[in-house]
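Q: I'm teaching a short session on how sequence maps to structure, and I want students to see two examples side by side rather than one. Could you give me a first protein with its sequence written out and its structure tokens following it? Keep the formatting plain so it prints cleanly on a handout.
A: Of course. Example one:
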Amino acid sequence: MIGGRKVAVVLPAYNAGKTLRQTCADIPGDVVDDLILTDDASTDDTIAVAKELGLHVIAHDRNRGYGANQKSCYSAALARGADIVVMLHPDYQYSPQLVTAMGAMIASGHYDAVFASRILGRGAIKGGMPRYKYVFNRLLTLFQNIVMGQKLSEYHTGYRAWHRSVLEKLPLLACSDDFVFDNQMIAQAAWFGFSLGEISCPTKYFPEASSINFRRSCIYGLGVLRTSIEYRLCRWGLKRSALFAPAAENRLPAAVPVREAAASIAARLEQRSAA
């Protein structure tokens, strides 16, 4: 706990068997009350390793996508009573040791969400981020800051912490099930007026660390541009979007047992796929 608040770390996993032990070993056990791993139909031993480590495991019956994986993670964390939820990739690309600092920034009451930025400082290039990704990151972030009226150093980190109230309010089920989910979620948090903070984070790029290829990066980039433009059009009253509407049916199930929450998420995802 931090300041009397229950802290959960959620790990959206896909073929993370080689790095999961190292990631969990560096998570500060003195403040983390719950470790939740959602496996998106990995083909390696991710689930076996997670169970060996004593994590709470949720297994998707098929690969549903990175965004869908996070929806399951966050739903489970809410159902298990978390007050602060930290999302950390289990591929050891980000430093797990920052969980305490990120959680404390939220527990202080100053921030509703905290993002671990690879851009603050020199962590990105030093850690091996490909040059084209660094350039795309900077250009997309500049565009989003201008269009959305924000001032973040990075919108694309996979390491972020949330106060429970944010996860309960955001219409996350309206977000993509793919990688652009991350970006849409930040846009939603800005839309609903939550306070956003950042912390500098070193990063590591190595063969076992998850990373999307150039083609998927381009698709992601186009999704980011679309999200930002949609945000601005909605602000101007020229468009309506489910991403920025407080519809109850697009919120995560929270006040139900974990198994029921996971089943509810799966059912909604199936309905979306059928549509």
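Q: Perfect. Now a second example for contrast.
A: Example two:
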Amino acid sequence: MTNQIAAIEHAKEKAVDLGMTYGPKVMVAIIIVLAGYFAARWFAGVVDRWLAKLELEPPVKQLILRLVRLVVMVLFLLIALTNLEIQLLPLIAGLGVAGAGVAFAMQGVLGNLFAGLTIIFTRPFRVGEYVSMVGVEGRVEAIELFSTYLSHPDRSRIVVPNRKIVGEILHNFGKIRQLDVVVGVAYSTDLNLALSTIHSLMEKNPRVLKDPAPIVRVSVLADSSVNIAIKPWVPVTEFAVAASEINQAVLEQFRTHQISIPFPQREIRILNEQGVSAAVGIAAQKQ
């Protein structure tokens, strides 16, 4: 019992000695870290105001601000560790070994990170543009270090890992898309009337862009109709609605101007047995 009391008293004395020795240093280290946090925020705000004048892309700006905060916090953390008389070289070596293990275990995450940096600095697409890639398409809402976020016309959200994007085929529509509407008219139709009617519809539709100008021209002489291609440009957000409006307007105006949209037609001729025999005989004589 006496030994246990002595051990407890010794532990208390040791704790008091450690508190007297390292307590003030720990408090100073905590104050330094807190000061580093506020200094990082203040310095990032200064850099943010400076970057606003350069008109950088949002992902690039966000990356620079994160790096600024990280560098400032690391500097203050090193000062705090030095105040605690911690040897930094063994610590850095240990972190290096641990970092190698973590990097091996997080290959996919690091792949996304480096791919994100590649996208941010090469800028194959920007926020607000409409893209098609790796089997999905949508409007780019955000480009972050690990993932790219797309909004689909059906109002769903698509998250694409950045490593899936780099090195793959990418179709960037930009902020406008070209519609591809085809309407067929009868061969007896006045083509000038049909084309002028469509041009008039394009001018009246507020969703259709005037520059670049819509393309309206005869595309194919089909079996039962003369096909007219209607290819206006519209904002990506208006793509689906504009296509529906143009199809409806073309149908209504063609009815008003009595322009016929023919059904598919096939002409079938049936020969009787006598006609078939005669045709075969004539073919034999020619041979």
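Q: What should students look for in example two?
A: Point them to this: Residues 9 and 151 are 67 Å apart (CA to CA). Also worth mentioning: DSSP finds seven helices and ten strands in the chain.
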